[in-house]
Structures are given as C-alpha cells and as structure tokens.
C-alpha cells in the first residue's frame, strides 16, 4: 500500500479512515527534548514507532483513533554509580481525536482515553517524543553496577549544581549561630 502519511504532518482524519499503519524511525538527535534527558551519547540511535489509525463509529458518529507505540534505548546516568547506563524505553498508548480544544476540555474528565485535537498536519513525531518523555525511567540504574561505588565518585554537573546552593545545614548554622555546637 502506498504510504502517504508523514510523521511531521499527519492528516489525522484520512489516516484513521484508511485504517493505515505508519512505521517510522528517526535518530535520537531529532528529538531534542528527549536527547536532553540523556548523557548526550547515542544521538544516532534510532527511536522507533508504529502508529495505527482506526475509525470507530459511536452513536452514528465517526471517531478517529490513533494507536501509538514506540521504543528506543537511551544512554542515561546511573543514579547509583554515576556511570552511563543504557536504559530501554517503550510506551504504548491510544488516543481519540476531537474537533477542537474546547471539546477536548469538555470531555476530558468524562472519558478514560487520551484526547487530542484533530489536525490535517498533526506533528506525530512530537507526540512520540512526548510519550517517550513520560515513559522515562525515574531512577535509571544498572542492574549490577560495573564498578564499586566509592562515595568519592562525583559527577561534575552534580557538583556544579551543588556549589550554587548553600548547604542547608550551613544556612541553618548561619541563622542560628547560638545553637551551633562543635562536635
Ligand atoms: Zn551503576
């Protein structure tokens, strides 16, 4: 089947009506918000996704649905040893399209599915990126860290961030000098 559906400007209604399937992949560097969550390594690794359109008829009215799944492999920083760790990431979600923002707001509390505003040039790849961001592991870590974890291992970014903030106990000591005791 000829594939006329583009990832950056998807004609939602036509896609759903055709019951079409689009498989896509793009390197991670095309997903700048997602890349920012990584160590910066692996920018050429592919993000894969599959989008399936579906038209349902509910109460005589057509509904446009999109079933989307995607996966990739991200280089993140292990929160235990601070070394890079490859974290697989995947998501799967279905969306129903509504006419406009007002319809989405009105229905949002009443239905379980996720609602999106229909479009003739829907940015599918942005949605893939949004879903990847939502599926990010909260605390990336190795199953088994490749190195022992000495307390002195330090991430320069972490240290820089720390240096900008006064240590909470130092601030406390400053506020209450009379109560500071030498140990
Ligand atoms: Zn680790």
Structural summary, described in words:
26% of the residues lie in helices and 31% in strands. By secondary structure, the chain is α+β, with helices and mostly antiparallel strands. Strand 3 and strand 4 form a beta hairpin. The longest helix is centred in the last third of the chain and has 11 residues, at 124-134. A five-stranded mixed sheet has the order 1-2-3-4-5. It binds zinc ion. Residues 78, 80-81, 83, 85, 141-142, 145 line the site of zinc ion.
Q: Keyphrases for this structure?
A:
183 residues, alpha+beta, five-stranded mixed beta sheet, 5 strands, elongated, binds zinc ion
What topology does this entry show?
Layout: H1 12-18, E1 21-27, H2 32-35, E2 46-58, E3 61-77, E4 84-98, H3 101-108, E5 114-117, H4 124-134, H5 156-164, H6 168-175
Parallel strand pairs: 4-5
Antiparallel strand pairs: 1-2, 2-3, 3-4
The chain binds zinc ion.
